[in-house]
Structure formats: structure tokens, C-alpha cells
Specification:
This protein is mainly α. The chain has one domain. The chain is built from one helix and no strands. The chain starts with a helix and ends in a 19-residue tail after the last helix. The mean pLDDT is about 75.
């Protein structure tokens, strides 16, 4: 084995590692984007539901939260 062949093999390994690293980075970024979209939509839905329940109400009596508009008087 000569010095030239050894240098070629090291360069090829470096290129392969760079390709693997860039592929893993692409997958990681895609996962974070998908997770952030899911999280933002979930928080939006949860905020909407909480707003609806606190303004309209779902509990007629023996509620934890006593500020519902449709709550019966004791």
C-alpha cells in the first residue's frame, strides 16, 4: 500500500462521514419542524377549548370553577 492510496481512503471516509452527518441533520430538522407544528396546533386547540369552557361552562353544580354562567344556584 502506498501513501497515495492511504490518502484516498482517508478522503473517502471523510466524505462518507460528511454525507451521513448531513443526512442525519436533515432528518433531525424535519422532525423538529413536524413536532413544532404539532405542538403549536395542539396548544391552539387547547386554548380554544379552555376559552369555550370558561366562558360558556360545562358544569351545572358542584364545580371546581364557580364562575360558569350556566351554573345553578345552591
Amino acid at each position: 500500500m502506498t501513501f497515495k492510496n492511504k490518502f484516498k481512503e482517508n478522503g473517502q471516509a471523510l466524505i462518507e462521514y460528511l454525507l451521513i452527518f448531513s443526512f442525519m441533520t436533515f432528518i433531525g430538522i424535519s422532525m423538529v419542524r413536524g413536532l413544532s407544528k404539532t405542538l403549536l396546533s395542539s396548544i391552539g386547540y387547547m386554548g380554544f377549548e379552555l376559552t369555550e369552557q370558561f366562558t360558556v361552562g360545562v358544569c351545572k353544580r358542584d364545580c371546581f370553577y364557580t364562575g360558569y354562567m350556566n351554573q345553578e344556584k345552591k
